[in-house]
Amino acid sequence: MANHCNVYIPTEANLDLCAQLLREGNVVSVPTETVYGLAGNPLIEESARKIFTVKGRPFIDPLIVHFPNVETVAKHIEINATVELLAAKFWPGPLTMVVKKRDSIPDIVTAGLPSVAVRVPRHPIFRSLLERLDFPLAAPSANPFGYVSPTLASHVASTLGERIPAVLDGGPCELGIESTIIDLRDPANPAIFRHGPITQEALTQALGMNIADHTAGVLNNKAKAAPGLLTKHYSPRAQVYLFKCGTVPRRMREITHQQTQAVVFNEKPTFEPLSKHTFWLSEDGCAETVARNLFELIQRLDQQGFDKLYVELSADHGIGKAINDRLHRAAAK
Ligand code: TXA
Ligand code: MG
Known about the structure:
The chain is of the alpha/beta class. It is 31% helix and 16% strand. The chain folds into two domains: 6-213, DHBP synthase (Alpha-Beta Complex), CATH 3.90.870.10; 239-331, Rossmann fold. The chain has twelve helices and 15 strands. The strands form four sheets. It has a seven-stranded mixed beta sheet. Helix 1 packs across helix 6 (124-132). The structure holds threonylcarbamoyladenylate and magnesium ion (MG).
């Protein structure tokens, strides 16, 4: 199944090759500081359509458009003072802003919405690709629709590898979870659509005002503000069960006697003996490390054939909110 022959190391020649593939309307997988993306030209409808069909993504789920800098963003959206302030503080980086679009962005990219999600990424490989092009790049996470997001080139190669001409290998993604999405359609009423590496606390401090959290409504499928954020998402094949931060699953002893069940802690447990079904996402519980390793470990355990994963939740603040959001969606039936 795995097709690794189209994984390219990011030499100048391979970056030129990927840029040429993109100019010809193909889609290519690129590393970003968050997760691997599936990039294509958003200004050509046929190329944007390819992104949806390769992922098996419904056309109602709009795409994020990535730009090399804030000046090029301004050509396609209506910039306001809040966008400028957050861009100066957090771009390039893992913050996506939902803003009013101009006509240059085709409807297929935004699922017909009058707004578009924009981001200036900081990953050097993604940036050098953007700098070679005279158009921005639309890029959702490069996973089949509904599955866990890829944080390694091999994750993309083994799922979408046969459907795309190239995967640029940038090694493991630095942050490991997708960008924070903030709604700035009305700058007087900002709202978080998706928790991510730029925390709600950091955004509140930067704006000096309260920011509504619209992610809970999305999680209950009540708010349709961010149409693609379905309750069931980021789902591995294995069933995921969650347990409270700082505890042990109630059935711990029973689980470790089952061949196909695994327990995932945030930090290395202090109790002995550790069974071969016990895993941890960091040595010391550092939340950034937990986020970086989360999707990789879940996909590895899925591939190893575990069919029940008992995963520890994080403390519900800072990046822990983003981790818990992904875990709740992965556990949703
Ligand atoms: O870190 C990331 O954001 C990664 C990397 C590749 O940049 N991309 C990513 O894209 O996570 P994706 O497509 O998997 O998730 C983007 C989400 C969509 O599911 C959708 O809910 C929301 O962004 N979105 C996009 N455009 C929107 C819009 N105009 N209004 C509201 N939500 C929007
Ligand atoms: Mg995604």
